[in-house]
Design brief:
heterodimer, A: alpha/beta, 2 domains, 11-stranded mixed beta sheet, 15 helices, 39% helix, B: 95 residues, mainly alpha, Histone, subunit A, 35% helix
């Protein structure tokens, strides 16, 4: 039961072959047995989950389930505010912080009948690519416990991969949904910027932050997206475009679809196994009737450097709110306000968060603003223009998700080498374009590899359709890890 | 190259107290990251308009309606130190 996708689980509820309570109990038992080693959860909301499951049971008994997610046991990244449930962002700064409200995405999933199993581990304030920067504990990759699950949403990704949740939500500012999805062998979808409300998401880079689903398969990702997407008066950047029934539109396949394969996504130094696997996946798509043409996105080599100006700049501004006054940590004994904030921030933030705050403050500071931040915003335009031009010729872009498979814990001590891991992920964040990672095979060592599709703004339907066609034509989703 | 004095200045702006060890490490790491970022200088961006947001939205308006606010006590519950309905902080005015 803990290995099936949500749509099969809720189908079993409808046929009275199982119940939300039975499923929730099975997931909770698996969490109790395995999560000590995996470290995917920061908080397990056992009592709340069982209550929500019992309510769902009653709805199924009455023959009136709320929809395709009623009774689905889910994990939410700990950067999403949950009313009455600790939300830490993986930081000492917010240890014990209990939000007085639910994020819009949480409220919508709760209204759809979803059962929250708990809050997923993450790199502190979503800054990192390995979930080693959580202030509380690292998360391990269920395929190989000596390796990282990716990050920053490593907790939810590992939980879904290991059968510790049926699905979940993460956030993606520079690849933080799609990269861990690739490393853990699950589906991870970053919708168009503004497609999903950010209300109640603790801000990192406001022009780059996206919320999206983790799922066992593409159908579940489509169902989860539909539930969380759409206008929200509480987020002025949230788009009002109607939300289609993504799951109903998966079937048509890729026949006649024009796919672009960007030269710049096959770089020197990338893992040969990853490149080979991705090229084989592209052949599969060709076999399914898609046309594939080489394209060029020439600004790609500059996208990562641009990201590491813009994201830290926005972060340094957003994280200024942690001053020890209104909520979160406060270090005692300071003689004035500035000392209180400075010492609180010294203790409350970890090394990676401090580094990004410093970098962001520097690129925004007097004398450097134009040279760094101003220039980066212009290069962001160049990155966007590349995609605009490409989408004049193709319907979708297909590319590798990461240059390598999951690396070992402690392998990337140097911050820059960690950042380079997100080189294929950040362009979709900077342009706000919808993108998905879907499993496309395994390395010789048995580690998952991700295939990425990037679509036009608000065209999640095509992204999901292509990923679904690929998924249905290949056997990868049947293979599951077996953590001890 | 960013100097130790600059790192100190930035840390003060960012309200971050850094130990001597942290300061030196931060200087090295910022220099390494900034060297990577400096590749952007080679690009010609003359006449390119900046992008501040992925989706161009201008002046999203809504009706100015009074809605019930969050209960004050609930919002103050996470405060590290409070007196009644106020946040308490160290004295900032002499006297």
């Amino acid at each position: 039961m803990t290995g099936t996708p949500i749509h099969e689980l809720t189908e079993a509820y409808r046929r009275s072959e199982s119940t939300p309570t039975a499923a929730t109990e099975a997931f909770l038992a698996r969490i109790a047995r395995l999560d000590g080693e995996l470290g995917a959860y920061l908080t397990v909301t056992r009592e709340q989950a069982l209550r929500a499951a019992a309510d769902a049971d009653a709805r199924y008994r009455a023959g009136k389930p709320l929809g395709p997610l009623d009774g689905a046991p889910l994990v939410y990244k700990d950067v999403l505010c949950t009313r009455g449930v600790t939300t830490t962002c993986g930081s000492r700064m917010l240890e014990g912080f209990v939000p007085p409200y639910d994020a819009t995405v949480i409220a919508r999933l709760t209204a759809a009948g979803a059962v929250m199993l708990g809050k997923g581990n993450m790199d502190e304030f979503a800054m990192g690519s390995s979930t080693e920067h959580s202030a509380f504990k690292p998360t391990r990759n269920p395929w190989d416990l000596t390796r990282v699950p990716g990050g920053s949403s490593g907790g939810p990704a590992a939980a879904v991969a290991a059968g510790l949740a049926a699905g979940g939500l993460g956030t993606d500012t520079g690849g933080s949904i799609r990269q861990p999805a690739a490393f853990c062998g699950v589906v991870g979808l970053k919708p168009t910027y503004g497609r999903v409300s950010r209300y109640g998401l603790v801000a990192f880079g406001s022009s780059l932050d996206h919320i999206g689903p983790f799922a066992r398969d593409v159908t579940d990702a489509a169902l989860l997206l539909r539930a969380i997407a759409g206008a929200d008066p509480r987020d002025a950047t949230c788009l009002t475009a109607p939300v289609p029934d993504y799951a109903a539109a998966l079937a048509p396949g890729v026949q006649g679809l024009r796919l672009g394969l960007p030269d710049e996504y096959f770089i020197e130094g990338m893992d040969a196994e990853v490149e080979r696997t991705v090229r084989t996946a592209v052949d599969v798509l060709r076999g399914l009737g898609a046309t594939v043409e080489r394209i060029s996105l020439p600004a790609t080599p500059h996208a990562l450097a641009t990201y590491y100006v813009i994201a830290p700049a926005e972060a340094s501004s957003n994280l200024a709110r942690y001053d020890g006054v209104k909520y979160g940590l406060r270090v005692a004994g300071a003689k004035d306000l500035v000392e209180m904030s400075s010492r609180t921030r010294a203790v409350g933030f970890g090394a990676e968060v401090k580094r990004r705050i410093m970098l962001g403050t520097y690129v925004l500071s007097s004398g450097y603003y134009e040279a760094y931040y101003g220039r980066a915003q212009k290069v962001r335009t160049l990155v966007r223009r590349d995609f605009d031009a490409a989408f004049g010729r193709v319907d979708l872009i297909v590319a590798p998700m990461t240059p390598n498979v999951a690396f070992k814990h402690g392998e990337k001590e140097d911050p820059l080498s960690m950042y380079l891991n997100d080189v294929f992920a950040v362009p979709a964040d900077m342009t706000g374009l919808p993108a998905i990672s879907v499993p496309c095979g395994f390395s010789a060592e048995g580690l998952p590899i991700g295939l990425q599709f990037i679509g036009k703004a608000l065209d999640e339907a095509s992204v999901l359709r292509a990923a679904y066609a690929y998924e249905q034509a290949t056997p990868w989703r049947a293979r599951r890890p077996s953590p001890a | 190259m960013i100097t130790r004095e600059e790192v100190l200045h930035i840390a003060r702006l960012a309200r971050l107290e850094l130990s001597d060890t942290e300061l030196e490490r931060m200087r090295e790491q910022l220099n390494s990251i900034l060297t990577y970022i400096d590749r952007l200088r080679a690009l010609d961006v003359t006449g390119v308009e900046p992008t501040s947001h992925a989706v161009p939205l201008v002046n999203v308006m809504r009706d100015d309606e009074v809605v019930p606010p969050f209960p004050q006590d609930e919002m103050l519950r996470n405060a590290p130190d409070r007196v009644g309905e106020f946040f308490r902080v160290p004295r900032i005015i002499e006297g």
